[in-house]
Amino acid sequence: MTLAISDLKVTLGGREILRGVDLELRAGQVHGLAGESGSGKTMTGLAVLGLLPHGARVSGRITLGERDLLAMTPRQLNAVRGGEVAMVFQDPATSLHPMLTIGRQLTEHMRHHMRLDRRQARARAADLLRQVRIPGAEEALGRYPHQFSGGMRQRIAIAVALACSPKVLIADEPTTALDVTVQAGILRLLRGLCDDLDLAVLLVTHDLGVMSAVADEVSVMRDGVVVETGPRAQVLRDPAHPYTRALLDSLPGETS
Ligand SMILES: Nc1ncnc2c1ncn2[C@@H]1O[C@H](COP(=O)(O)OP(=O)(O)OP(=O)(O)O)[C@@H](O)[C@H]1O
């Protein structure tokens, strides 16, 4: 197991938002995290990255290998974040700086975390863009985010997340802001990267259709706890929890 969350509790403004979350991520597997709006999916991802809102009180364990992320100093956690654990957000504008070239955004990260020189970093940046299927990778390094489509920008944001060879990738609604025609391509890309790089992926989405397309394991959250977890086919075809059943019933079409 790559990352294990156990009994994670988060209190914010006197309210317990996460009430004992248990979740396990494995290398080479996509773990889908579903649940209605406000159930705590995003907060779970942010807790792993140590990016909870100011004033949050946290307890439980989040172990990466042998290390407990919740016991780390801010400095140690900073090294893990963007290094071993990376994140892709719904809106690529969140992770891409509009005023910096793609090349700069990819290489700054690597030079800092991986101590590569300019030439090595640039070569790796072009490789990363090829890996996420950006056409004309070399030229793309000199362009700015607005010169790419939404789907391409999300691919670039994924490349930035992969820059320092993470073990864990947290993707929070990575296709929600995109046109339906490009969503499937991004999901296929994430699936392929998970397989090729042996990544442990947490795919946060309210969309069970997205889940059924790529996830190996599925967990369903409600009101700050995971109510059901298991292999995708089992959870989506034969849910054990009434809440999962209700979520599936509320879908317009076929889900698995
Ligand atoms: N900055 C904040 N301060 C206080 N409460 C917050 C804050 N951000 C989120 N919350 C609360 O935390 C709970 C969990 O939110 P979270 O964003 O994790 O849910 P979610 O399942 O990801 O929902 P969505 O699908 O809408 O993103 C919600 O009740 C929300 O109102």
TrEMBL record:
<comment type="similarity">
    <text>Belongs to the ABC transporter superfamily.</text>
</comment>
<feature type="domain" description="ABC transporter">
    <location>
        <begin position="3"/>
        <end position="248"/>
    </location>
</feature>
<dbReference type="Pfam" id="PF00005">
    <property type="entry name" value="ABC_tran"/>
</dbReference>
<protein>
    <recommendedName>
        <fullName>ABC transporter domain-containing protein</fullName>
    </recommendedName>
</protein>
<keyword id="KW-0813">Transport</keyword>
<dbReference type="Pfam" id="PF08352">
    <property type="entry name" value="oligo_HPY"/>
</dbReference>
<keyword id="KW-0547">Nucleotide-binding</keyword>
<dbReference type="InterPro" id="IPR003593">
    <property type="entry name" value="AAA+_ATPase"/>
</dbReference>
<dbReference type="InterPro" id="IPR013563">
    <property type="entry name" value="Oligopep_ABC_C"/>
</dbReference>
<keyword id="KW-0472">Membrane</keyword>
<keyword id="KW-1003">Cell membrane</keyword>
<keyword id="KW-0067">ATP-binding</keyword>
<dbReference type="InterPro" id="IPR017871">
    <property type="entry name" value="ABC_transporter-like_CS"/>
</dbReference>
<dbReference type="InterPro" id="IPR050388">
    <property type="entry name" value="ABC_Ni/Peptide_Import"/>
</dbReference>
<dbReference type="InterPro" id="IPR003439">
    <property type="entry name" value="ABC_transporter-like_ATP-bd"/>
</dbReference>
<dbReference type="InterPro" id="IPR027417">
    <property type="entry name" value="P-loop_NTPase"/>
</dbReference>
